[in-house]
């Protein structure tokens, strides 16, 4: 039985499949995907359709899924230039923001799906968890896409808003929990360290950052929490 964490695949189906094949997940294994499966790359929907068939892959929502779901849930029936004219300014602004931030590739891929697959993707995205609390080898972990904005040690995880968990800026110089480890994606390690060459999983002060820059042409990192073995694709 093994527990793995992965994040920020950003539509890179090739690296995703390489990781899945290398890990060779057994029935007793679990892979947590900490959001931003979609956008930028050309295989977002392909990855989602594969993930939904794997019961031991547990997805958490990232800011890119949140943007995508907000838009695609209104476009599931029919997507045409004419139909877009019927949406209000708020929706069109959200759609424009999503497309600008890497959603164009996901949007184009979604348009090519059958109606059945479109509906399946929307339903699957709507089931993504906001966070997960797990114990591995007696160590407690909190898994979340970006972090815990407006952090207070006594604040319950259930009291954090979606925005506080999917858009947070984690302070890696600060120990949030003395007895728990916070695992996040969202911010590439290169941005955390201000080093464009940094592309490995970063561990500091009871934080683990696992976004190794796959969405920007870098590596897809995977960490086994049982052994702390790192995998890169």
In short:
This protein is α/β, with parallel strands linked by helices and 233 residues long.
Structure report:
This protein is an alpha/beta fold and 233 residues long. The protein has one domain (3-232): Purple Acid Phosphatase, chain A, domain 2 (4-Layer Sandwich). It has helices at residues 13-23, 44-51, 63-72, 81-84, 89-111, 115-126, 162-166, 189-193, and strands at residues 3-6, 30-33, 57-59, 131-136, 139-144, 180-184, 202-204, 207-209, 221-224, 230-232. The strands form two sheets. Strands 3-2-1-9-10 form a five-stranded mixed sheet, with no helix packed on it. A five-stranded mixed sheet has the order 4-5-6-8-7, with no helix packed on it.
If helices are DSSP runs of H or I spanning 4 or more residues, what is the number of helices? 8
Annotated CATH homologous superfamily: Metallo-dependent phosphatases
Order of helices and strands: EHEHEHHHHEEHEHEEEE
**What is the third-level CATH name, the topology?**
Purple Acid Phosphatase, chain A, domain 2
Number of strands: 10
The amount of helix comes to: 25-40%
Give the low-pLDDT segments. none
Largest sheet: number of strands, sense, barrel closure = 5 strands, mixed
Strand content: 15-25%
Distance between the termini: 22 Å
Instruction: State the secondary-structure class.
Output: alpha/beta
If you compute it from the alpha carbons, what radius of gyration comes out, rounded to the nearest whole angstrom?
Answer: 17 Å
Assigned CATH class: Alpha Beta
Lateral strand order in the biggest sheet? 3-2-1-9-10
The figure for the number of domains is 1
Do you know the CATH architecture? 4-Layer Sandwich
Shape: globular
What is the average of the pLDDT values? 94
